[in-house]
Design a protein that fits this description.
The strands form two sheets. Strands 1-3-4 form a three-stranded mixed sheet. A two-stranded antiparallel sheet has the order 2-5. The relative contact order is 0.21. The termini are far apart. The C terminus is likely disordered. It is an alpha+beta fold. The protein has four helices and five strands, in the order βαβαββαβα.
Length: about 80
């Protein structure tokens, strides 16, 4: 069963995992997570399959890696920062 998770809720999901974990373990653990993005969805296990990291020691490390692997359009319009205007 696939869990739909908003990107803003990602940290809560990753906090539930046991660390440290290898990238392969993270990929398996997140195979059922579909991230709801600003423009579409991404399977988190598939994203982690593209990672070059060896392991993750904390939820913060894994969150950072997921954010780096997301397509640029996933989090909103490029070159715009929140709070301006």
């Amino acid at each position: 069963m696939t869990r739909d998770v908003k990107l803003s809720q990602l940290e809560g999901v990753l906090d539930e995992l046991d660390y440290p974990m290898s990238t392969a373990e993270a990929e398996r653990a997140c195979r059922d997570v579909r991230l709801i993005l600003a423009d579409g969805t991404e399977n988190m296990g598939d994203l982690l399959g593209e990672s070059n990291a060896d392991a993750f020691d904390s939820p913060d490390e894994l969150t950072s890696e997921v954010m780096n692997l997301l397509p640029q359009h996933a989090v909103g319009e490029p070159y715009q920062s929140e709070g301006e205007g």
